């Protein structure tokens, strides 16, 4: 059982926490990631990268501060639209598969006589 001693801490000596000021030169990594990940998903046609880019860009759009909105070169909803386009590109072959004759672009050599 805890002993019943008087609390010796003094509230008048407590110093409240204050966030350090943000540096203006810090790079916006979330903006850079949310704009490059959809391109990586489209180039590699990787669906997992497409979904990660969609979730990441949606989080960066919803967590955008007014200062980031003011300083951004493009609006954050454009990265969400870009990631949706990446998802469309990665799932496009399921709905419209390539023609059967063009599935193998490498020409096979004909047998020699």
Automatic annotation (TrEMBL):
One of its GO terms (cellular component) is endoplasmic reticulum membrane. One of its GO terms (molecular function) is protein folding chaperone. GO terms for biological process: protein insertion into ER membrane. The keyword Transmembrane applies. It is found in: Membrane. Keywords: Membrane, Transmembrane, Transmembrane helix. The chain crosses the membrane at residues 76-96. PANTHER family: ADL329WP. This is Protein Asterix.
